[in-house]
């Protein structure tokens, strides 16, 4: 095969269809915590549509459901337990260092 023809050939990639994260029977609702919790990061942020592999309509419904659950205090607005642990450790060690001097 000529080099000029090789440039136009696309490399073959295996196409593996991923299963959709929301099945057709699942109802997107603020009370469905098992479904909603899959679309929230460890920090409590709503994950992007690309990461979730959702359609635009599904992402909008998930976002509204998460916000409703937060307002009704079913979900926390922030999950910063690790930040508090780190700041406590820093203040403890800083306090010990100043006392030893």
Automatic annotation (TrEMBL):
The keyword Metal-binding does not apply. It is found in: Plastid, Chloroplast. GO terms for molecular function: small ribosomal subunit rRNA binding; structural constituent of ribosome. SUPFAM superfamilies: Ribosomal protein S18. GO terms for cellular component: chloroplast; mitochondrial small ribosomal subunit. Keywords: Chloroplast, Plastid, Ribonucleoprotein, Ribosomal protein, RNA-binding, rRNA-binding. It comes from the Eukaryota. GO terms for biological process: translation. The keyword Kinase does not apply. Belongs to the bacterial ribosomal protein bS18 family. HAMAP family: Ribosomal_bS18 (MF_00270). PANTHER family: 30S RIBOSOMAL PROTEIN S18, SMALL RIBOSOMAL SUBUNIT PROTEIN BS18M. Part of the 30S ribosomal subunit. NCBIfam families: S18. This is Small ribosomal subunit protein bS18c. It comes from Dianyuea turbinata. The gene is rps18.
């Amino acid at each position: 095969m000529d080099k000029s023809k090789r440039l136009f050939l696309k490399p073959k990639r295996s196409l593996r269809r991923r299963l959709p994260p929301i099945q057709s029977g699942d109802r997107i609702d603020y009370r469905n915590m098992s479904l909603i919790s899959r679309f929230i990061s460890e920090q409590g942020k709503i994950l992007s549509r690309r990461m979730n592999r959702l359609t635009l309509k599904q992402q909008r419904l998930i976002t509204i459901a998460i916000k409703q659950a937060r307002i009704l205090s079913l979900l926390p607005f922030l999950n910063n337990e690790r930040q508090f642990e780190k700041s406590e450790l820093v203040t403890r060690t800083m306090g010990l260092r100043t006392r030893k001097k």
